[in-house]
Amino acid sequence: MHRRQPKLGLIPETLLLTLYARALDAKLPSPILGDTLSAELADTIDYDFRRLKLKPNLVVTTALRAKKLDDVVRAYIAAHPECVVLDLGCGLDTRMVRCAPSPDVDWYDIDFPEVVDLRSECLPGRSHVIAADLTEPGWLDTIPGDRPAVIIAEGLLPFMPGDSFQHMTRELTAHFPSGELAINGYTRFAAWAMKYHPTIKALGIKAAQGFDDPHEPENWGAGLELVEEEMLTRAPEVARFPQPLRALTRLTARSTALSRQGARILRYQF
Ligand SMILES: C[S@@+](CC[C@H](N)C(=O)[O-])C[C@H]1O[C@@H](n2cnc3c(N)ncnc32)[C@H](O)[C@@H]1O
């Protein structure tokens, strides 16, 4: 088998972490996401994934947050069959394959040019792929702005510098008549602590950002309104977490403050 050697910068390299987490989940006896395509894809990449030092916690939470964000997309598409889907900082995510939208849906995958090149090589599909730095203006111009949109940003927020995520959000909500934005949230502490996480440390990433109050984005001037904050510690899928992680997660679930420090899905409408 021809294995590709990815040439990725520091931030884009994080896509290998989420890809590998989904791949490892798919190989578990009782997977949470069960994304076998991600497992196949990881096998085609010539990279020492062991250097990412992925722990079971990161594998199951990454799989679970992907599953919950897929659910957001599926529900939105069911309610808006001719919508637009945007996956911001898509990496090598196979979300479109997992969600299998009808041809009436227009799907846009957006990431840095080097990622888009790799993606087009090893994950061809029917999505529109946009090569862009999301902190720069102009990339939205090619996306039709007359249809409702569901916008996913998974694993992106901590890597956008300064207030660029907020700025991008204002541009997005001004572009579409209505829609939903769904992200996996990071508290300020979780974002700060990320640099001590063995995986992020292994990649050498220093800065990350987050916010505590799920209502904070309502003050970004983007017309966002919080629809739901879903704590993943309380998801039924926790029953499939390996022990002792399952017991620890169930304990954490009793406290909202502690649950917030872990994975959560934030959903906003505009
Ligand atoms: C942790 S990875 C997540 C990838 C994918 N969403 C997933 O869940 O597998 C973060 C992704 O965000 C992308 N990214 C970060 N900052 C970006 C920016 N300013 N413009 C475009 N993409 C960006 C990276 O290249 C990377 O693919």
Automatic annotation (TrEMBL):
Query: Which Gene Ontology molecular-function terms are recorded?
Result: methyltransferase activity
One annotated GO biological process: methylation
Q: Which key words are in the record?
A: Methyltransferase, Transferase
Query: Pfam families under this entry?
Result: LCM (PF04072)
Q: What is this protein called?
A: Class I SAM-dependent methyltransferase
Tell me which species this is from. Nonomuraea guangzhouensis
